[in-house]
Amino acid sequence: MTTFQLHNVDSAPQDSKPILENSQKSMGMIPNLHAVLAEAPQTLKAYGTLHELFTNTSLNNDEITVVWQTINVEHECTYCVPAHTAIAKQMGVSEEISQALRNETPLPDDKLEALRTFTKQVIAKRGNVEKADLDAFFNAGYGQQQVLEVILGLAQKTISNYVNHIAETPLDDPFQPLAWQRT
Predict the structure, then answer these.
(1) What is the per-residue pLDDT across 1-38, written as a single tens digit (0 to 9) for each?
(2) What confidence score (pLDDT) does residue 3 get?
(3) Which of 36, 70, 141, 148 fits a 20 to 30 Å CA distance from 61?
């Protein structure tokens, strides 16, 4: 694979510099994903915009984490699973939920399990879900709005998962203790 540059504020294209500065200020670091994305300012902006939009959906923190981590695990993203494990902790998501997502074991809540199942179906069927898939999701207490929000989360995570696969983004030091491989 080609080695992708990990940009910092000095090396980044001009349009990426303010975004990297904001990452540094808000997170105390420039995550390696952002450092790679900085090569293409519009892609970095798109990822950040989708992140902001997805975190402001009707989904609560547990549900946001279920969507993110389900996608990360299904795409086998060894960068995003550890990163989102740390993010989930910051969001107040229980260790039980995080571990069930990482280990692909049952979630402690039927509604969350229905969300994970539906998210996996959207990925596996490339959006061509069946009426039975939708009915099961709706019967769990979700609606059309949440269908569209799952797709929004998928759009965000597709950018990061695919970039991390292609760029072989190295895991940041703070996430090393949370390293993950599908077993």
Answers:
(1) 568 999 999 999 999 999 999 999 999 999 999 999 99
(2) 86
(3) 36
Structure tokens at 9: 């504020």
Helix, strand, coil fractions of the chain, as percent rounded to 5: 65, 0, 35
CA atoms within 13 A on the CB side of 129: 20
Helix (H, G, I), strand (E, B) or coil at 121: helix
pLDDT at residue 1, as a whole number: 53
Whole-number percent of the chain with pLDDT over 70? 99
CA angle 157, 162, 164 (to 5 degrees): 95
What is the phi/psi pair of residue 105, to 5°? -110, 165
Helix (H, G, I), strand (E, B) or coil at 127: coil
Other CB atoms closer than 10 Å to residue 170's CB: what's the count?
A: 14
Identify the CA nearest to 31 among candidates 168, 178, 174, 177.
174
Q: Which of 144, 108, 120, 19 is nearest to 99 (CA)?
A: 108
Q: Name the one residue in this structure whose structure tokens are 């549900």.
A: 63
By the 10 Å C-beta count (0-12 exposed, 13-18 middle, 19+ buried), 127 is classed as exposed
Reduce the DSSP state of residue 180 to 3 states and report it: coil
